[in-house]
């Protein structure tokens, strides 16, 4: 089915803007409302401190409160959810988002950038947290590697390439 009559929300979490670049490409191709998820209390600048904090949050199941509020989530038919892989898991702020907003009955489409180790359990966790949604096959690509000092890499020629791959994925999913 075509998306032309559907209301689309594109929500993403991004620390070094790789996932943001993917979100903007999707937005450019299919439109909708683009929202960056921000926290009440941002993570530290320091990479190692952030890694440690996330390990702890994952262990305790802590759901970091979101500063971003989404108005009338019921209005959307399709929700793209974008995030980096953190510690081979779904980042805690995305867990917060999926706990806070009921995506029942909606088409939910994950997308991801990662440092080269893949999505880990992240897409599986999205499915678990959206038991009453229709989950489409997600998109993932290699982004940066903050550990190795590689921040934004999805730019220039890499962004053009990502655009082509994303378009093919959206077509395959019959979204374009
Ligand atoms: C705290 C933290 C943990 C990460 N853990 C992983 C990981 O487990 N596997 C992986 O492939 N990349 C990992 N990365 C790298 C990011 O997934 C990758 O750089 C991604 O493109 C970042 O997206 P962003 O620019 O939208 O923030 C981690 C990055 C951070 C900051």
From TrEMBL:
PROSITE patterns: FLAVODOXIN_LIKE
Keyword Signal: yes
Flavodoxin-like domain: residues covered: 8-174
PANTHER family hit by this protein: EXPORTED PROTEIN-RELATED, FLAVODOXIN-LIKE DOMAIN-CONTAINING PROTEIN
Alphabetized UniProt keyword annotations: Signal
Pfam families in the record: Flavodoxin_4 (PF12682)
InterPro entries: Flavodoxin/NO_synth, Flavoprotein-like_sf
One function term, GO molecular function aspect: FMN binding
Name recorded for this polypeptide: Flavodoxin
């Amino acid at each position: 089915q075509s998306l032309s009559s559907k209301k689309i929300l594109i929500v993403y979490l991004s620390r070094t803007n790789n996932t943001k670049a993917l979100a903007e490409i999707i937005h450019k191709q299919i439109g909708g409302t683009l929202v960056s998820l921000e926290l009440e209390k941002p993570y530290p600048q320091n990479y190692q401190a952030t890694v440690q904090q996330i390990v702890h949050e994952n262990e305790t199941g802590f759901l970091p409160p979101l500063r971003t509020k989404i108005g009338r989530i019921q209005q959307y038919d399709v929700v793209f959810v974008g995030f980096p892989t953190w510690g081979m898991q779904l980042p805690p702020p995305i867990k917060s988002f999926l706990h806070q907003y009921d995506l029942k009955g909606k088409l939910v489409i994950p997308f991801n950038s990662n440092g080269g180790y893949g999505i880990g359990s992240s897409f599986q966790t999205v499915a678990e947290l959206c038991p009453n949604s229709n989950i489409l096959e997600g998109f993932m690509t290699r982004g940066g590697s903050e550990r190795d000092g590689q921040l934004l890499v999805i730019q220039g020629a890499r962004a053009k390439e990502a655009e082509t791959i994303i378009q093919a994925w959206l077509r395959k999913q019959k979204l374009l």
